[in-house]
Amino acid sequence: MRRSDLALVCLLGLAVLAATAVAPAFVEARPAYEIPVHYTVDDDAVEGDDGEAWNRAPAATVPLSSAGANVPGGDDTTVTEASVAVVRTEDRLHVRVSWADPSRNVSNDRVRSFADAVAVQFPANASNRPPIAMGSTDNPVNVWYWSGANASEELLAGGPGTTTRFPDSTLSTNATYRDGRWTVTFSRALDGASANRTTVPTDRDLDVAIAVWNGGNMERSGQKAASEWYYLALGPGPGGPPYEVILWTVAGIAIVATTLVTIQGVRRTRGA
Ligand code: HEM
């Protein structure tokens, strides 16, 4: 190989190496609808909404729109997105939902006053995706619900209008309102412990949906901003940066190899 060819190949090699390092930052790092899950063994690291583990849990932005329920004002909702981060420890799942709301409403006391609220929906049976509108009779959902007025509840629903409360909720919640933003953290044992209660799998993904009510806009019950089905990346599989780096490296090697073969081909043709 001539020295000029060698220099070209080296330059190309360097360019590919640089692209391998930089390119993943420019592409969407995860599949649509995936919410990454950060794993830590240390329960204390998830304390509140700013424990150290949250710094390592990449948040996903989840778009919200009116749930479309056939209730008065059903289409009148204000919250358009929520930021969702998830941490799993050995025994518990922690879900942190944060969204912008210019007014803090925590009272249901007066006739026309409603509290801000948020909910996280899972299939009761983790391996069977239910209808997004709160499941169906034969495929129900669990809902982790927090309201500024009533603290938290674990609910079971088999379609709109069927919401019932589990009598022995084991859900922990923590809520803060700071600089026009709610941050609510839910946490519960992975094990569902009783019938119709979602057991969070540790070896496969789990469907999840989010809903937010702006009490200041008199949002309640069916009048809320809800997401589509997303999934928590609890199972093995692609999704994280290591996978992408491998892909870019393989692509880089392929480019260099093709260039080498082409240069050799051209040289042989010229030499012929
Ligand atoms: C996207 C389609 C959806 C539709 C059409 C819908 C419809 C409704 C309706 C009609 C109600 C009032 C009757 C009842 O209490 O069951 C309601 C309440 C409720 N929904 Fe939904 N829903 C949807 C999605 C969701 C999602 C994704 C969640 C949770 C993430 C959720 C959580 C709740 C909760 C917690 C209540 C009771 C709220 C309260 O007591 O004020 N819904 N929904």
UniProtKB/TrEMBL annotation:
Which residue spans traverse the membrane?
245-266
User: Please, which domain of life does this record's source organism belong to?
Assistant: Archaea
Is Transmembrane one of the keywords UniProt gives this record? yes
What InterPro entries does this protein map onto? Cyt-c552/DMSO_Rdtase_haem-bd, DMSO_Rdtase_II_haem_b-bd_su
MF terms (GO), sorted A to Z: metal ion binding
Record has Translocase as a keyword:
no
What sequence ranges are listed for the domain Cytochrome c-552/DMSO reductase-like haem-binding? 51-225
Pfam families given for it? EB_dh
Q: Which UniProt keywords apply?
A: Electron transport, Heme, Iron, Membrane, Metal-binding, Transmembrane, Transmembrane helix, Transport
User: What protein name is recorded for this chain?
Assistant: Ethylbenzene dehydrogenase-related protein
NCBIfam families of this UniProt entry? DMSO_red_II_gam
